[in-house]
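Record type: ASSEMBLY
Status: queued
Input:
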Amino acid sequence: MGNDKEKKSDKANEPDLLKGEDYTEILERIQHIKSLFAFGEGILPFLEELFIFLKEVTPLLNDVSDSLMNTSGMMPDAAVELDAAVKETSGATYQIMENVETILKHLDEFKKATENIDGIDKAQAPISEIQENASSIMNALQFHDIVSQKLVHVRHVLAEVQKKMLTLFTRIYDMEIDKSVKENILQTLGVNVDEFERIMETKIEEQKRLTADDPDPRKQQEDQASNFSQNDIDDLFN
Amino acid sequence: MSQEDLNILIVDDSPTMRRIIKNTLERIGYKNSIDASNGKEAIDLLEENPINFVITDWNMPEMNGLEFVTEVRSKSEYQDLPIMMITTRGMKDDVLQAVQAGVNNYIVKPFTPETLEEKINKLI
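Status: finished
Output:
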């Protein structure tokens, strides 16, 4: 009886021996690990290249984003400059016009006052020429109205470009992702994270104001293809 | 209709353009003209004065030239009033829209005194 007990106890203490299939599994796992190492070895040069690429591209991205943020910020200044140019040339044009009108008026008075003087015809010929030249100057002042309208169009195009830039930054601003991830994106783009939210709030307001009644410049560009000459218009009314 | 009988209403938001048109008209013999800076003002002047010729711009604040012409043409008493548009807008669609609204002639800026004289003479 006692021997039987000892035999049982020895069997319990005996370590589990590996069977044939266990060895096969271990060998398979080793093979997997070996494959992983081989994959790692293969991917390492790629990862290395990827990091080199990112290292080289990041400063470029920073430049691009700096430029975008700066340009976007400069747009309202450009619009103000254009408005100022229109205003200043308006004043100057009006001044020229007043002077030309005064010249024309004096020439008219002179002609009337001297019309009964014998032999005045010869003297009045150059006066008539001056009058014609002065009238041509006045007519040429139409350029101001035409240029002003073109400047207004440029202003609309600027507003449209600014709108597109703001859309780009607004997308980032509105992204519903973790704040730290968003900050990482902004940092990668070289944007000042602290300033970003403040700038974006101002810009979005500006965008609403600037684009409230701007016509779509793309539509105007398409329309230019169907420009009508004065002759075409005359044909229409004949 | 003689030049003296013609009372012209000039409608343009640019004071420079109004003066250029007025001055050109005087040079070619049309001495009677009054002016407005937008369509709304022009409607008031039209009702208060014996106007028999209108020269209007297109791009104006408050009421633009196209709206002004449409409004004028909607009133029976102005059906035969000659209206000429002088504008920087020279696209085919623009001209067609203006014709549809009721303009009798159309000049693209910049205009010459000769063109203006020719078009007015054609309409009176």
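Annotation: Chain B touches chain A through 29 residues (CB under 8 Å).
Annotation: The domain at 3-119 of chain B is CATH 3.40.50.2300 (Rossmann fold).
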